[in-house]
Design goal:
This protein has 189 residues and is of the alpha+beta class. 33% of the residues lie in helices and 23% in strands.
Length: 189
């Protein structure tokens, strides 16, 4: 078991496998990592909501105010947010706007009524826990854990990372990885 071994090569490979998973999670919006987040605003909320624990990034143009069947406008830049706050446009803002700041999902204006907000996001949890298959996590910790990426893709990336770490030529390994990455991302919708 590479996870219970003290061998330097196994230690390096298990470390590199987790790097591969993190990088692949960021590289593409994979179907297997797509999730939905719904929450309900309350009267008197300050408009700030904690992101899900497995949050990686939002899926563009999926934030909606379901109560009124309108999209949330955003993400706002820091400048746009400052403009709205400074101008106090609460009474004339047609669509609520959003941004992510300080690890929070912020809505402007804060809702004056209970509102159902729904959006889709990409999860950073790319591993199925071997002990609890319904639980996903963000790193392999045992030899029985299951990466949610195509096994050939993550194997090719791990080979490329291992060769790179050892100082070997990675040209062929990179080409093999790129070819499969392009093929898989071409039909993973």
């Amino acid at each position: 078991d590479p996870y219970s071994s003290a061998d330097d090569s196994f230690l390096q490979m298990t470390y590199l496998l987790n790097i591969c998973g993190e990088e692949l999670s960021q590289a593409f919006h994979w179907e297997s990592l797509a999730k939905q987040w719904e929450f309900v605003t309350q009267i008197g909320d300050n408009g700030e909501y904690s992101l899900p624990a497995d949050w990686l990034y939002i899926t563009n143009q999926t934030a909606w105010n379901n109560a009124e069947s309108v999209p949330l406008f955003g993400p706002l830049s820091a400048q746009d947010w400052s403009y709205l706050i400074g101008r106090d446009l609460v009474d004339v803002t047609t669509y609520p706007s959003w941004r992510i700041w300080g690890g929070k999902f912020q809505i402007f204006p804060a809702q004056n009524e209970q509102t159902n907000i729904r959006l889709e996001y990409s999860s950073r949890n790319w591993v199925i826990d071997s002990a609890s298959p319904d639980m996903h996590k963000d790193s392999c910790q045992t030899g029985a854990d299951i990466p949610m990426f195509d096994r050939t893709l993550i194997s090719r990336m791990l080979k490329m990372k291992f060769l790179e770490a050892k100082g070997f030529d990675t040209t062929k390994a990179q080409a093999d990885f790129n070819q499969l990455f392009d093929a898989l991302t071409g039909h993973d919708k």
